[in-house]
Amino acid sequence: MGRRDLYRTALRGLDARRWPEYLRENSGLPGPRGNIELAQAVADEGNLATFDRMIETDDEYLVFCGVIGLGRLLADGMDVLSRLRGHAVDARWRVREAVAMALQRLGDADLPRMLTTVTAWVDDPHPLVRRAAAAAVCEPRLLTTGPAAACAIEVCSRATEGLARLPSDRRRDPGVRSLRQALGYCWSVAVAADPVAGLPRFLALGDSTDRDVAWIVRENGKKARLARLL
Question: Residue 119 domain-assigned?
């Protein structure tokens, strides 16, 4: 039995009102890494009321768990996509990461819908929504089919083009910098999933004179999954 299954068993044995205390004790925070396995177990076992109570707190880890839980509800058919879009622009990076993980939950259950969602989100005016789209789709376990890999490449391309169109006075915005940071690894995941289609589009970025695009190219080139293809 893995850690996630152990946490699921523990949560089932607790009254839901005691979950927050248990989560705080086992969150792994403060520390370099929050307890993702526990958060996924919460998403497996909780319900909308549980997730809402967590999201309404000021505790970043509890909100993180609740937002991933929304992803499970989305995968189950509940219409919570607009809520996830709202959380994608949260000032807290863990909450933003929870949105990407929530969309990946959708991808595990209904990949075509997830691909449609990220394709729409990558054209959103807010850079953090575009960041969520790229981070969500650039997950190796989801990129095992041609359409999924093609979508990841397209999302990375459109997100990068949108970044390059921004005026210089926007480039230091926290949301824009977060998008750039994500694109610094997302391209390598997308290209590795389909090098024949992805590598030419990535290499074409090398002709850009945009400093942020050049940074994205350099950062991805450092990733082993891409370096072995160059």
Answer: no
